Amino acid sequence: MEFETILYDKKDNVAWITFNRPDKLNAQNETLLGEVVAALEKANDDDEVYVIVITGAGDRAFSAGADISMFSKWAPIDVMKWTKATRRPYEFIREIPKPVIAMVNGIAVGGGTEISIACDIIIAAENAQFGQPEISVGVIPGGGGTQMLPRLVGEKKAKELILTGDFISAEEALQLGLVNKVVPKEKLREAVDELVGKLKSKSPAILKFAKLAVNKSLETPLSVGIQSEGDLFALCFGTEDQKEGAKAFLEKRPPKYTGR
Length: 260
Hints:
2-enoyl-CoA Hydratase, Chain A, domain 1, alpha/beta, four-stranded mixed sheet, Lyase 2-enoyl-coa Hydratase, Chain  A, domain 2
């Protein structure tokens, strides 16, 4: 599959999806969003892909959010058709039963923040910035920002960011719990590779159950979430990887997982 606005590369069981509009700070137009979904579907359907990494081309931006040129031609019905009838990356990233890492290499605001916080883990360079500046162009966040930010940083800070449109630094994002790790720009790829290595050493099947269980905790009452966790815990024992993991531990050797 040929892509116009992104790059897709699979290597060593990792799918790398790169926003490739560096001259536009990797802004998200309709073509890019559709291609990201197509790339995510490709990675999701590929049993040889264990981990997905999303990043941006160049060293200035992960993604500066929506391409504002789209806004001038949209009417409410156009937006509703797009949000309700089209699969969008913001939701799809959370649904994919594989770890998805955001490698944030610069500005990640608006839709850039929303895609990054939809990912399971965020590793950011020191020059990264986050924010929801949509209020400054006459709209509210439309990719899950009003829903995910309060869960990550609390109601008050989320409202401050969304109502003012202010940006925050990578260091402040780390302090707020918005990102997992901040590293010097030149160490970003190294840090992501280290994390990828850790994830690849685990069972793909059990990683799937773990991600589903944590996601459920954010979507249901505690009692329902605990029941779901119990069900997923039980399903682990129906996998070959669970038996291999237990056997390898008892035999004091590294496990050899197959994802089954």
